[in-house]
Amino acid sequence: MATPGVLCFRDITALAPMVRVGTLPMRLLALDYGADIVYCEELIDIKMVTCERVVNEELDTVDFVAPDERVMFRTCERERDRVVFQMGTADPDRALAVALLVEKDVAAIDVNMGCPKEYSTKGGMGAALLSDPDKIEAILTKLVQGLSKPVTCKIRILPSMEDTVRLVQRIERTGVAAIAVHGRTREERPKHPLHCDFLKAVSGAVGVPVIANGGSLDMVKSFEDVAAFRSATGAAAVMLARAAMWNPSVFRRQGLLPVQTVMEDYLKYAVRYDNHAFNTKYCLCQMLRDKVESEMGKLVKTAQTLSDICAAYGMQAYYEEVQVLLRSRRGLHPPETPVTLGGVTTMALRFHRRDYPPEITPKMFLLEWCRKEKLEQPHYHTVDRPQDRLFLSTVTVDNKQYRSTLWEKSKKGAEQAAALVCLRVLRLPEGRRGEEQQQEEESGLGGKRKRAVAPPLLAAAPPQEEQEEEREVNKKIHLSDREAETEVTNGNHHKTHMP
Ligand SMILES: Cc1cc2nc3c(=O)[nH]c(=O)nc-3n(C[C@H](O)[C@H](O)[C@H](O)COP(=O)(O)O)c2cc1C
């Protein structure tokens, strides 16, 4: 990525669009491993145009939901600047309608012009477009003129090199930001050799970045092969499909990870984002490859639910943890119930300055308590989310970690919220106004005395403005810190990928 926030198609490696494979868990995993750009699976315009955009507060995703309640496309903040929405279309107006529906949640819009399958071509979509360059031009021009996000397309080569070059030059004139080229004709199957000479010719014939595709079978096995594939094709960038489907850690600069590790990482995302069990199974079976008939493979194939799949991988505990967390987000537990996920105890607590006397904070109380107990002083680790500049802090006390699930507007606020969670879980004084009186009453020391004032946390409704601000911040809350991209430790910022 050349400039943060602006999608650049030069010198990048992309996860190719793949039906059934390119759903949210795979895209996030590919990003974790190092892919720069991730394409979603091809989604057909006729279906997409009926979808409603729904903010899913529980999962922290944006869902595009069909009238039959099927989620056709699920995305989240983490990938917003990296995900390319690929559609199948043969109609410029409908293509624009769909693109406008998803535009603000994605980084670019792509049109599939290479799919040779009958379900695509019989509707004039996919590879059928290759023999109708006027239609290609009409669709791409409409999109480029009607959208503020980059538009790209993915084609296959034509039988003649001259025709392929002419087509790519015509596409370039529509104003697209990049052209992905699969170096096989529509008649050729994936096992056929790739035409690197065609890719080289088109790359040299246009100024727009050409993304070379088709090298998974014999050219790219791990990340170190990517550079050779690029130079063999003279392309600006590389797009990987099958190599990534078999092992998405192909994007990892440090080399491939064992498939078992990758499958577990994938399953975590599938559970976290409530991915459909059958889709999850499909992707895991692709990763299992020849081991799909092993004992493990059989367990995966017969699984009916995400819970069954987790059982096959010995990940039931993880599944349960996530369910508890999701239930708490659904409001089935009061927000103050502590929930432990991945070894961190969390509560939905926010730090409000107005609840404390001047100069008093939860951090001070926590530090004081640690000193008294002769423990190491609390250690705060804060991450920030660049897209909305919110912060989340984890405090370590006595080798245990505590965190609020609510993102704060400042690093200081996030640390105070983490300290608050720790104090609340350990049932320690927090320093709030009126706290002593409240505790006295709760412990019965106040006898029959009627509570004179409500506890400060509930005492006064915050002013309207503050409530609205809080609602706004709550909308942005993320469930876990997987999405966090920038780590802030002791004030230093550096890029990190959460596991
Ligand atoms: C399972 C699977 C699904 C695919 N779905 C799509 C798709 O939705 N859109 C598309 O343009 N190409 C699709 N393709 C084609 C790939 O994007 C890619 O062009 C092809 O596999 C060659 O690249 P590779 O050698 O890296 O696999 C699919 C390929 C596979 C294996």
Concise summary:
The chain is of the alpha/beta class. It has helices at residues 24-33, 45-48, 92-102, 118-121, 133-146, 161-173, 196-205, 226-233, 242-246, 259-272, 277-288, 295-302, 306-312, 316-329, 362-372, 411-425, 435-442, 456-459, 464-475, and strands at residues 13-15, 37-39, 43-44, 52-56, 61-65, 71-75, 83-88, 108-113, 151-156, 178-182, 210-213, 237-240, 339-341, 344-347, 379-385, 390-397, 400-404, 486-489, 492-495.
Account of the protein in words:
The chain is an alpha/beta fold and 499 residues long. The protein has 3 domains: 13-252, TIM Barrel (Alpha-Beta Barrel), CATH 3.20.20.70; 258-333, no CATH class; 338-444 and 467-495, 2-Layer Sandwich (Double Stranded RNA Binding Domain), CATH 3.30.160.20. It is 37% helix and 18% strand. It is built from 19 helices and 19 strands. The chain has an 8-stranded parallel beta barrel with strand order 1-2-7-8-9-10-11-12, surrounded by 6 helices. The chain is elongated. Bound molecules: flavin mononucleotide (FMN). Flavin mononucleotide (FMN) binds at residues 16-19, 21, 41-42, 86, 112, 114-115, 154, 182, 190, 213-217, 240-243, 245.
Number of helices: 19
What CATH architecture of the largest domain would you give? Alpha-Beta Barrel
- Tell me the major beta sheet: 8 strands, parallel, barrel
Q: Termini, distance in Å?
A: 21 Å
Overall average residue pLDDT: 86
CATH structural class of the largest domain: Alpha Beta
* Unreliable runs: 443-499
Number of strands: 19
Helix/strand-derived category reads alpha/beta
What coarse outline follows from CA principal-axis ratios?
elongated
Question: What share of the residues lie within helices?
Answer: 25-40%
Q: Which molecules other than protein and nucleic acid are bound?
A: flavin mononucleotide
Q: Tell me the count of domains.
A: 3
- Spatially, the strands of the biggest sheet line up as 1-2-7-8-9-10-11-12
CATH fold descriptor of the largest domain:
TIM Barrel
Q: β content, as a range?
A: 15-25%
Full CATH superfamily name of the largest domain:
Aldolase class I
Alpha-carbon Rg, integer: 26 Å
